[in-house]
Amino acid sequence: RTTMKSLRFISAEAFVSNAEFARKSLGAVAHDLFPLLFKASYLLEQGEVIHDLVENWPLFDFNMGKLLGATLDYQEDLSHRTCSVCLESCLTGLRDYVLNQSSPYMKKLKVVDLTGIKDVEVQFCKCKKTMGRWARTQLLSKLCSELLVYLQQAQCNPGTFEISINVLIDLFVTERNYELVVQALLKKCSCPLKISCVAFRSDNLTLQKFFYIIKLTDPSLLRKLEIVHNVHLEMEHLEILFNSIHFPLLMSLTLPARTFNVRRFTATDEQMLTNIGEKMGEMTQLTELSMSFSILTGRIQKLLSPLKTPLKMLDVSNCSLNHADMAYLANSFHANHLEALDLSGHDIPELYPSTFFKLLSHCSSVLRSLTLEDCNIQDTHVNMLILGLSPCQKLQEFKFIGNPLSSQALKYLFTFLCELPMLKNVEFPVPRDCYPIGITYPIDDASLCRFDHQKYERVAEELNLILLQANREDVKASTPLFGSYDAAVQETNNELGAYLIKSFKETLEKFTTSFNKMS
């Protein structure tokens, strides 16, 4: 699919394609052409030109999302291209903007917004080397620290110290880049480039380090907070966090697995849960909440009823919800506003079929994403599922891997899915008849790949043919056996893997020591 380019854009491409000529000629370029030249340079991966454009940026703001998004001159959105060459050139150009004393342009730049960059699985850039969120956090922090060292050592123009640029960024901090980010945040006041954290993701951090760095980020500006995987945050720590720090603008909150476990609850824990619910109620902007792999049986109402704003996204996958929880969700004021819902890991047909379908009917007019993985949906439930999904005309994404459905049932379901006009992404299970007879669900990791791969390929082809014959080539259908693509996990999987091995080794050593003492 080719995207139309205006004559202006074609001319801009021609101009930047000769990097040496373009760099020499920038001084004669009108200010309002800089955004056009930036997008053309980004498309052609002209790193040196990108660097010089940013170094001499003549405008008040530099917004990556807007600059790379659809424009009248070139409709294609390039904001999902996290090209390493382009992004590094951008950030080093920003550092040199501060240091460049001979630039012909008056320094007007006040705000740089890097939050519009989207990390996706498939990259179209020629270099094929990406710079993800973690690496962007790392590089910006490093450049800020280097900039300060240079300014303290060199004889700079006094005007350099008056430069103050807010750099809006989504930070991603793990043990490996923690020290560097802390240093950049601590020296924010003296640095011309001021890191302004809009979204914060932490993984593989001790609680002490997490609490320290979250205070440095200026939580009053935070819109999104993700505490994931190897941050061992439990309910009492969450209460301390909410009691000691206010998040007035927080719109999205993700908590790590096992934050809550109601099976161990005492009267004190019940009060703690009530306090946490009330604190979340004070976050008047909160519309997205993810609490997967916690045990929340019978407590959903206590947590969600204090919220003043209806939730648009709710992930309660593998949270051991009971009928009372589902009844609360179906009848709550959140139900009519849910655009994304994840109820994976619950035996929906067995436990609360009618309540679930009531919830689905309430959110059907706005629902965009539905995830029902490992929900024990079988062939006999497909007709009911189709009835429930029929009103969901805005559904863009439906994920239901891990359900014991036959290839015949999947074909029947796909014929219906073709009728959902907005649908773009379907994640379907390996058909039950591809596995050995007697397989039990949910399938354990060891058995997950032990299916007839040739038969699966044949079924997948037939399912894609159903989409093709209905003129639905726009729908992507896949079976990600080990979960959907997660850019953040993909980028840091080496570090997380090393952490897990280290934890396992420490546990083994403790066990051996205890065993030797007993002997």
From TrEMBL:
<dbReference type="InterPro" id="IPR050694">
    <property type="entry name" value="LRRC14/PRAME"/>
</dbReference>
<dbReference type="GO" id="GO:0005737">
    <property type="term" value="C:cytoplasm"/>
</dbReference>
<dbReference type="InterPro" id="IPR032675">
    <property type="entry name" value="LRR_dom_sf"/>
</dbReference>
<keyword id="KW-0677">Repeat</keyword>
<keyword id="KW-0433">Leucine-rich repeat</keyword>
<protein>
    <recommendedName>
        <fullName>Leucine-rich repeat-containing protein 14B</fullName>
    </recommendedName>
</protein>
<comment type="similarity">
    <text>Belongs to the PRAME family. LRRC14 subfamily.</text>
</comment>
